[in-house]
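Work Package 4 report. The design task specified in the project plan requires that, given a folded chain encoded as structure tokens, an amino acid be chosen for each position. We show below one input record used in the internal validation round.
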């Protein structure tokens, strides 16, 4: 009977630590605080969770080694500490692997920092693709790297339906085309003289010289192209004598001859790498419309988000149950089972740390989910279901902790600690910095750490 009572206590504590999930969700949906507030609260929760891990998981195992009174006890304690270290490494690796899989299915939308990283990486990948296409032009590869940033921002992305005319023979040469996809038919009179596809450059000579087009270009199928107007090239020529020299050489139709002599040849791949390195990396904060579009692109995003948050919560729920086993065992050895009360065995620092960490996570994620177009009821029940799952996980953790050797319990605690610490460093702290800034993050993390430590006074 007592075992079932302890099991119910584990489930109760698991639910209590995760009760901040639906509470934080409600606050986020009703209040929608500013970024600095969310960032500060996230950092506070991260600091509290670090304290909980240090005090409730790592410290007891370490102290057993320090306080061991004989060689046998010292040997056992050493093995337990090694189990914890190994478990922490495995836990961190497993978390990163599973988190990556879930994020690839849209789970990144659950966290502001991961969402910003996704959009930033997507923009960076797109810029590299643009540069790879532009590198097909020997002229572009002579553009100074200091101007590359301006060039990438001024490029026009255009699409032409099959049969559309890009330009007519005899028209002014006021634009250059870099074909990304599709096929362009080049005709002179009634004769097809060339078919250009992805990677080909169209109208380069006319752009430099301003001479009329010598042929007509028609989209043979749907075509995607990057374009620049002549006025941009003229402006860049005025800014760089080197670029102007390359343009002059090209206009004189002597570029190929010089390339063959290696006078001005530049490897395209090397140029792309150097150009990417010269670009200023700017974090991309998505708009509400962009969030909704990406959520639709990832059809399984809601499930992935739920699984991602569950992944964040599984380690902590197991830790609660396992920690309760240790507390109960210590209390039974000192006072006997009949003298144990719930208040006497609660790991206050751990519960407080988890509660404080869960609250801002749910609040921040709920704000993001609402921007993605989710309705309030759906968001709330998702967090409520995760509270239930955490409570069940704590019960499983208690049952598992009471059924296996203590060394295995320590290994499981190490797995959980490694996963949780990795999650703090990979998600919570970066999110806090993104939203609140470094100063707010630093002070809030310290405050959360000290607040969780202070709960130790209740024991």
């Amino acid at each position: 009977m007592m075992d079932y009572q302890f099991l119910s206590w584990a489930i109760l504590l698991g639910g209590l630590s995760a009760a901040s999930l639906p509470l934080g969700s409600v606050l986020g949906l009703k209040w929608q605080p500013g970024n600095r507030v969310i960032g500060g609260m996230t950092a506070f929760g991260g600091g509290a969770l670090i304290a909980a891990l240090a005090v409730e998981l790592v410290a007891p195992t370490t102290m057993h080694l320090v306080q061991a009174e004989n060689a046998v006890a010292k040997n056992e304690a050493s093995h337990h500490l090694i189990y914890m270290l190994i478990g922490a490494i495995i836990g961190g690796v497993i978390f990163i692997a599973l988190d990556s899989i879930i994020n690839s299915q849209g789970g990144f939308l659950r966290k502001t920092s991961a969402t910003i990283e996704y959009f930033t990486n997507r923009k960076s990948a797109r810029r590299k693709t643009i540069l790879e296409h532009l590198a097909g032009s020997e002229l572009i590869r002579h553009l100074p790297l200091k101007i590359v940033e301006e060039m990438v921002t001024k490029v026009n992305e255009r699409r032409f339906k099959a049969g559309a005319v890009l330009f007519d023979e005899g028209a002014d040469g006021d634009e250059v085309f870099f074909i990304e996809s599709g096929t362009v038919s080049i005709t002179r009179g009634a004769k097809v003289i060339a078919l250009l596809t992805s990677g080909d450059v169209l109208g380069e000579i006319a752009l430099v010289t301003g001479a009329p087009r010598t042929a007509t270009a028609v989209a043979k199928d749907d075509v995607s192209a990057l374009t620049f107007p002549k006025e941009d090239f003229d402006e860049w020529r005025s800014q760089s004598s080197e670029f102007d020299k390359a343009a002059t050489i090209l206009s004189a139709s002597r570029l190929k001859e010089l390339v063959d002599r290696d006078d001005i040849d530049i490897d395209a791949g090397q140029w792309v790498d150097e150009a990417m390195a010269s670009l200023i990396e700017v974090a991309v904060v998505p708009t509400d419309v962009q969030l909704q579009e990406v959520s639709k692109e990832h059809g399984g995003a809601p499930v992935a988000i739920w699984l991602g948050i569950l992944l964040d919560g599984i380690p902590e729920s197991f830790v609660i149950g396992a920690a309760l086993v240790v507390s109960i065992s210590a209390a039974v050895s000192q006072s006997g089972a009949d003298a144990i009360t719930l208040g006497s065995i609660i790991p206050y620092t751990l519960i407080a740390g988890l509660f404080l960490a869960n609250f801002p996570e749910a609040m921040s994620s709920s704000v993001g989910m609402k921007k993605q177009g989710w309705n309030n009821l759906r968001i709330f029940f998702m967090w409520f279901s995760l509270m239930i799952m955490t409570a069940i996980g704590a019960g499983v953790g208690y049952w598992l902790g009471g059924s296996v050797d203590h060394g295995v319990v320590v290994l499981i605690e190490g797995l959980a600690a490694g996963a949780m610490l990795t999650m703090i460093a990979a998600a919570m702290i970066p999110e806090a910095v993104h939203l609140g800034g470094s100063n707010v993050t630093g002070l809030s993390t310290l405050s959360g750490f000290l607040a969780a430590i202070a709960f130790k006074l209740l024991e």
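The chain has two domains: 2-106+298-458, 134-278. Validation will be extended to a larger panel in the next phase.
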